[in-house]
Prior knowledge:
By secondary structure, the protein is an alpha/beta fold. Helix content is 31%, strand content 27%. The protein is elongated and about 80 Å long.
Amino acid sequence: MTPERIAWLTRLRHELHQQPELSGQEEKTAARVADLLRKAGADRVLTGLGGHGVAAVFESGRSGPTLGIRCELDGLPIQELSDLPYVSQFAGKGHLCGHDGHMTMVLGVADALMEQRPKTGRVVLIFQPAEETGHGAVAYRAARRFAEISPDMVLSLHNLPGLELGTVQICEGPANCASCGMQIVLTGKTSHAAAPQDGVSPAGALSSLMPALATLGAGGELSVDYALTTVTHATLGERTVGVAPGHAELWVTLRTVTDTRMERLVSDAESLVSETAKAEGLSVEISYDEVFESCVNDPEAVAVLAMACSDQAVACKLVDQPQRFSEDFGQFGKSAKTAMFWLGSGRDHPQLHNPDYDFPDTLIPTGTGIFVSAIRQVLG
């Protein structure tokens, strides 16, 4: 990649950084991406996939497999704290997970494909919405037109603070934990604060469920039996001193390495909540949001990425444990061989979702180069 192209991609990343859009609202970002893909000479650009998703097809003209390269479009509902000249222009919104950088690297792949098409098969560049909520990949794959581009293999990356800048880690098997947000609503009956015995308060159930749910998943080693429950939000009654409460809410994040272990954790948590509510004379409603299935790396796809790193002279380490955070990229593994690698953002770099996080521009040619080398391996 020439210095001129790197400079152009860097400016593009800064522009994307300035205009983040939240999950499900990525309309302008998607339109900009689609326009750039058309200018890069894509044979087809599909839009509106699973919301604001975009796909660009680069054909070789010869039979062969379809290789997908995936990135994310959405930002986060976090106020950016930065004095950068390209700081977010939208209050309360920021590209504080690096999706602006991920998009830029895949647009760099489009730039490379403009110069040299694959020798066989085709490349599909996947720009997926709503990753942060876990809704995007499911909707993208469910879109009617996804059948037109359905890939045989899909590769992706995520930048990783704490890992040495520009180095790569990858693993076979589970790569990102499964997780889901469990939302519990306990309903009793209010009463005057002077006569609490005439109501049904959820206070006792709420206070017992918080530590009890924690015992179902204490974390620890990232083995197949790993489970972690984290209380993230709790409310009891109204902001008043005259009414004994009749309503409570408890939100808990459940996290496991495997989907099978998640099924068991969900069952155990639901049983505990139901039994506690019944004992206290309460009705209960349980719902779920931000559901992420386990992300599993296929050995063949891992081998492709490892060879691509070698081709690009990028230090690559094969590890045997997944990341604790979740990713909806695993949805693509339902119909294709998939693998995600982690690209180091620096050992002392601010953590993902921190208000002062910023994607390191020096990673742009590294990530782009790995993807381009992978395309050459798979498609000739």
